[in-house]
Amino acid sequence: MSDPQKTADAVLKGNVRIAARLMRDLDDVCPSAIEVMKRIYPHTGRAFLLGVTGNPGAGKSTVVDALISLYRAQQKRVGVVAVDPSSPFSGGAILGDRIRMQRHATDSGVFIRSLATRGHLGGLSRSTSDVASVLDAMGFDVVIIETVGVGQDEVEVVSQVDASIVVTVPGLGDDIQAIKAGILEIADILVVNKSDREGADRTVRDLVSMLELRGHDSAPVEIVRTVATTGKGIDELANAIERFRARNSDDSAARSRKRAEVTVRELVLDKFRRLTDGELRAHLDLLEAVARRTLDPYSAAETMIQHIGKKSD
Amino acid sequence: MSDPQKTADAVLKGNVRIAARLMRDLDDVCPSAIEVMKRIYPHTGRAFLLGVTGNPGAGKSTVVDALISLYRAQQKRVGVVAVDPSSPFSGGAILGDRIRMQRHATDSGVFIRSLATRGHLGGLSRSTSDVASVLDAMGFDVVIIETVGVGQDEVEVVSQVDASIVVTVPGLGDDIQAIKAGILEIADILVVNKSDREGADRTVRDLVSMLELRGHDSAPVEIVRTVATTGKGIDELANAIERFRARNSDDSAARSRKRAEVTVRELVLDKFRRLTDGELRAHLDLLEAVARRTLDPYSAAETMIQHIGKKSD
Lengths: 313, 313
Description:
In chain A, helix 1 packs across helix 3, helix 2 (16-27) packs across helix 3 and helix 2 (16-27) runs antiparallel to helix 6 (124-138). The longest helix of chain A is centred in the C-terminal third of the chain and has 31 residues, at 252-282.
């Protein structure tokens, strides 16, 4: 990559080609890309970051698709970071979301970036944050971060957004199972999608009960019914998002601090993850001894921690 | 905790009270507990580790419950590590699984340990592995590790087991969404639970098609239909597990090596996670500057990485 300042300037002017290359270089953890990010960072913080999470099958991508159309109709530019459900083992990504979002592909006001979970052993949050920062710096008004499921990674991702939508769907199992997903606690707004399906009323009632369990101190959470495939309820969802923004405008300093903490934490851990993987490759003998149970893993780990400490200094 | 060797001896003799205390101390990362683990480790590797994963609502706990009964009827002692779906934010665990498994509570041949995801920021895999090792050392014949969802954490957990069952259920969404869960790649055996429901045939067909997509080099994956609430298909599932064990007995050295790598990696990363969290608390000024955008997070991270390196030496 050429001069970091030139690249940063091009990204800040919204150059799509150079921004895409920067995102690729960030994935590869190029030092030059980090230098670009240092220059871009002071210009971020203007975009509204919206997280969309939920169970597979809930129709997250369709909700995102409908929100893109709505924001585009308001002349807002929309960036999307889709944390893709490619397998962590095979790397084979099924491009469902991207196929669905195809109709926005020729719209220069929309930029969609998919992140494979493969190659992101725990570093998914860091990559998502990097891509969101680039989109923010490019001048996108709304950056939607779509994630699957509710793993720890995703919780970290959600702590970086300004508002978090959790999409659920009728008939996904009984109450206990719904709570299992642990989704309620990260939701600023709950969406019951496919709400024309049987059982929608019960799902809404269950969610209301669960929200009541959270007690009076918890922030209010609106529940919105949608049928994203037809666009039904999407206006109402956008309104709920606006109401949430209005209610939480005072919190923005606290959110910034939390986001700074999560971002720095991920950058630090990402570095140690890479150092650890290098150390593991360099000490196959220790791993072999652990596998044969002639060495215990705790002692092997202590040795490696000392080596890594010397390298990170 | 008293003398590590005494504690280790008590655990190896199957002392439940002392084992439970060791698990708690491991959660708190007590150095004395690590000393006990070093002594226990050479005596592990005898238990059969079985992973049970799947979407919320698929009925994993019911499948686990039925397997416990089956193995108990064979006079096998069964340990269970339930990675609990408590919220990472509130810490409120809903004890659904534990309620269901209550009927085994008075059976001394069964030991169930729930792990909350809270307080395990990325360290879930390490805790799971520790608890499984303790159960293994206590002489449990089968250790079942039940996890929710398909986050990165869970992929790490799965790479520690001898056989991995993925439980799915009819009607969870279309093909693309099912693939989204990324579950196929980690399955040694696929279970279609609630197979008396409408759509079970289609679910099985879809899974067969997806397995065919994996190509000829992939290991064969059996698909078993169950109705775990009635016990239907559980015998067949146990037989499928046995067939898988028989087919893969040659791989055990490779599995041990892989498991050693995952275990050591997690121990190392867990240490750096804790050092990082300490560093973040000690440098609120840096975080504040990042939040105000007077400092970029990349430079803040570099400073912290240097500090941590000095401490871990």
